[in-house]
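TICKET: design request
STATUS: open
ATTACHED STRUCTURE:
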């Protein structure tokens, strides 16, 4: 079907809850994608931090091919060997933890909230979940109730009771909230707020929250859906800050491109999810597990992660040169999640359009930011190419 036809048919047949680029991407290879008109783009969106090894990764492909010949889905009525193998790998970095697999990020957070409530109610009748201002934890009702920006919540009230937001990076406010409320079961944070524009959380604040939680017998949950699994140069982002969360939620790159989410929880807490108390039909199916395991093994290799950090530093140093530009307010990054913040949303929009015209895909994010999420195996030459495109886009901003 021609590009124009598919765009108009997508408007006609699909619910219009996404603002899509009017481009039909037909194939991808490594850091590159190709549209139906034969145009080539450098893809620094990676399907919103999903394609951690770029497109068409040969090892993931061969795991998928092997698995579909054996078994695609069977359900959790049975023991699934691929799930056990994957869980074993995930907890190698979190000894004493256990894993529950689901299908998406929001579903992973729903599992953390249910687990936290079950544990909290047993431990003193506590059922309140605290999240942070600016937070994004997903769009189903529980996760939405922990998500802060108005634009996601408006039109969906009433949300789930028992959720409360406290100002990010303000430990005094959080201590006061904990002092006044004896019914808090858990505090959930993103170590870096991706959707909020790659907003870094003060490392001292993160450590203080963990200590506050331990002192008050409150669960400390980290949502690493966007920043886990090698994106920042470590398997888990919280390793940068030497934190020890009770539960971690994961998704996005977890399934190597096949829908997959998970929680990794301290087994003392994890065992509160007893048979029937939580579940999902498709979660952890053999296909998602095989693809995910292949991606996980490749992206958590020590040498590979070192390289992610090296490339991230190089990328950030190049971006820092743009700080002198009058349109640029700030640049930030850790590993291969980076952002350029502009002085207005119009400037950010124009910049992303110019990048698109020059064959570079990036993500226009909350407020005035563009988010850059290259594949973790991006080449240095591809980073240099993007810098040239950024430079040229900035040069055209006044036109
Ligand atoms: C930090 C964080 N949590 C949760 C989610 C929701 O994940 P999903 O879209 O897979 O439901 C996202 C998605 O962007 C995210 O970035």
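STATUS: resolved
RESOLUTION: sequence designed for all positions
ATTACHED SEQUENCE:
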């Amino acid at each position: 079907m021609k590009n124009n036809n598919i765009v108009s048919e997508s408007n006609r047949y699909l619910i219009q809850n996404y603002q899509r680029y009017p481009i039909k991407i037909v194939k991808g290879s490594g850091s590159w994608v190709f549209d139906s008109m034969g145009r080539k783009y450098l893809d620094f969106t990676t399907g919103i931090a999903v394609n951690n090894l770029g497109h068409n990764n040969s090892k993931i492909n061969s795991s998928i091919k092997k698995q579909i010949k054996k078994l695609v889905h069977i359900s959790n009525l049975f023991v699934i060997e691929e799930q056990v193998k994957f869980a074993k790998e995930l907890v190698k970095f979190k000894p004493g933890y256990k894993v529950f697999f689901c299908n998406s990020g929001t579903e992973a957070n729903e599992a953390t909230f249910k687990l936290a409530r079950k544990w909290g109610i047993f431990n003193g009748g506590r059922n309140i979940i605290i999240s942070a201002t600016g937070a994004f934890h997903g769009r189903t009702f529980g996760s939405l109730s922990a998500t802060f920006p108005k634009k996601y919540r408006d039109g969906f009230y009433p949300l789930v009771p028992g959720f409360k937001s406290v100002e990010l990076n303000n430990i005094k406010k959080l201590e006061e909230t904990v002092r006044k409320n004896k019914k808090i079961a858990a505090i959930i944070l993103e170590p870096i707020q991706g959707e909020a524009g790659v907003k870094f959380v003060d490392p001292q604040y993160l450590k203080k929250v963990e200590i506050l939680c331990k002192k008050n017998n409150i669960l400390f949950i980290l949502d690493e859906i966007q920043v886990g699994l090698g994106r920042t140069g470590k398997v888990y982002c919280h390793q940068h800050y030497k934190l020890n969360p009770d539960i971690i939620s994961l998704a996005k790159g977890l399934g190597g491109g096949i829908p997959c989410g998970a929680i990794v929880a301290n087994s003392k807490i994890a065992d509160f999810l007893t048979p029937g108390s939580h579940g999902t039909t498709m979660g952890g199916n053999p296909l998602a597990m095989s693809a995910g395991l292949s991606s996980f093994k490749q992206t958590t290799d020590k040498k590979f992660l070192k390289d992610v950090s090296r490339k991230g530093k190089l990328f950030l140093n190049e971006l820092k040169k743009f700080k002198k530009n009058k349109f640029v307010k700030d640049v930030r990054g850790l590993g291969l999640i980076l952002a350029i913040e502009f002085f207005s949303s119009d400037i950010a929009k124009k910049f992303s359009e110019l990048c698109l015209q020059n064959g570079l895909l990036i993500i226009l994010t909350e407020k005035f930011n563009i988010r850059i999420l290259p594949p973790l195996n991006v080449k240095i030459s591809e980073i240099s190419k993007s810098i040239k495109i950024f430079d040229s886009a900035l040069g055209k901003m006044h036109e």
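CLOSING REMARK: The longest strand covers residues 328-334. The mean pLDDT is 97.
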